[in-house]
Write a structure and sequence with these properties.
With 345 residues, the protein is of the alpha/beta class. The chain is built from eleven helices and twelve strands. α2 (52-73) packs parallel to α3 (93-110) and α6 packs across α8 (247-275). The protein binds 5'-O-[(R)-(carboxyoxy)(hydroxy)phosphoryl]adenosine and zinc ion (ZN).
Length: 345
């Protein structure tokens, strides 16, 4: 089943939900014509996470330039855009407000329709931009703010199977990295450390396996904290990491965390495939889906169950406006427009 019509449309997508300012142009026949991004990671690297006030200011400074760049790169002007699609939930309120306000101003000035997009729907369909994904598919969206499993029946038609009850998967990487005084975002650093010891499970951290499709990662983070304290690697009084010079120890922690995460994801995917045999494909999406080790673990599971498997390219895994423009495209074809009263959340 595929409900997309053949109406040719050009969509401008805008993303500003967290620490990335993005703008992209998607065209029905030509696909993504541009996907511009300004990442604030360097501004937040040493605070261990995103500072909301700073994120809003950065968006405000960059958004006009990024949208202009997206239009220029696609060799079009605003006049040839048919619809403006903008992330309006979920996210940091101040950050979302910048993107939504600018999208509304453009829509008003150029007399274009506007569509508010759910950021998570953007991630969910991000693998469909470059791949012919067969429906129904299951999407594991794993990022800094979310970890959820969706059963996707068609464009815009899906059900939530489960999500995290506490921390997100990416948050677990970020928080453990922070404990070890490693820079934000933690995921890529943890991956680099773990590959040096070839992804061995040194410390057997606890696997939180619930008998449904939900996740829980805060217990894992706490188990690692206690383990660091017990190994005299972390002083809870001063919040100091005491093994900054001991790379071998850091590699072992990173590797054990990654293997544990791989086991948790694999168990959940097996449960999904067994419960819903009609599923054709699996899409691993969101920032955590950049992780090559986790990709290879889930590839093996899909091969065992003979399911198609898709990952977006790295640029479409982390936050970006390409996925927002893509969802905007099928919502426009389904005539699901918003108007200038569009609000955040
Ligand atoms: O999707 P994203 O860019 O933003 C959110 O919507 O949160 O995801 C960012 C998250 C961060 O928590 C980061 O640590 C994680 O994705 N991440 C990774 C990797 N690259 C980014 N986690 C594991 N391995 C990676 N290579
Ligand atoms: Zn995201």
């Amino acid at each position: 089943m595929n409900t997309l019509s053949k109406n040719k449309l050009t969509i401008l997508g805008i993303e500003s939900s967290c620490d990335e300012t993005g703008a992209a142009i998607f065209h029905t026949d030509q696909g993504l014509l541009s996907n511009e991004l300004y990442s604030q990671i360097a501004q937040h690297a040493h605070s261990g996470g995103v500072i909301p006030e700073r994120a809003s200011r950065e968006h405000m400074e960059k958004i006009i330039t990024i949208v202009d760049q997206a239009l220029t790169k696609a060799s079009i002007t605003l006049a040839s855009v048919d619809v403006i699609a903008v992330t309006h939930k979920p996210g940091l309120p101040g950050a979302l407000t910048i993107g939504v306000s600018y999208a509304k101003a453009l829509a008003y000035a150029a007399n274009k329709p506007i569509i508010g997009i759910d950021h998570l729907e953007g991630h969910m369909f991000s693998a469909c931009i470059e791949n012919d994904v067969k429906f129904p598919f299951v999407a594991l969206t794993a990022s800094g703010g979310h970890s959820s499993l969706y059963l996707v029946h068609d464009y815009g038609s899906y059900e939530l199977l489960g999500s995290t009850l506490d921390d997100a998967a990416g948050e677990a990487f970020d928080k453990v990295a922070k404990l070890m005084h490693l820079p934000y975002p933690g995921g890529p650093v943890i991956e680099r450390l773990a590959q040096e010891v070839n992804f061995q499970d040194f410390f057997a951290y606890p696997r939180t396996n619930m008998k449904n499709f939900n996740f829980s990662f805060s217990g894992l983070k706490t188990a690692i904290l206690y383990h660091l304290i017990q190994q005299k690697a972390y002083d809870p009084e001063t919040k100091q990491f005491l093994k900054s010079d001991d790379i071998a120890f850091q590699q072992q922690v990173a590797s054990s965390l990654l293997v544990c995460m791989g086991d948790i994801f694999e168990e959940k995917l097996r449960r999904v495939f067994t419960t819903y045999p009609e599923i054709q494909s699996f899409c691993f999406v969101g920032g955590v889906a950049c992780n090559k080790y986790l990709r290879s673990r889930l590839t093996s599971t899909c091969n065992q169950f003979k399911k198609q498997l898709h990952f977006p390219s790295f640029k479409l895994c982390t936050d970006n406006a390409g996925m927002i423009a893509f969802v905007g495209h099928f919502k426009a074809q389904q005539k699901l427009f918003s108007d200038l009263s569009l609000k955040i959340f």
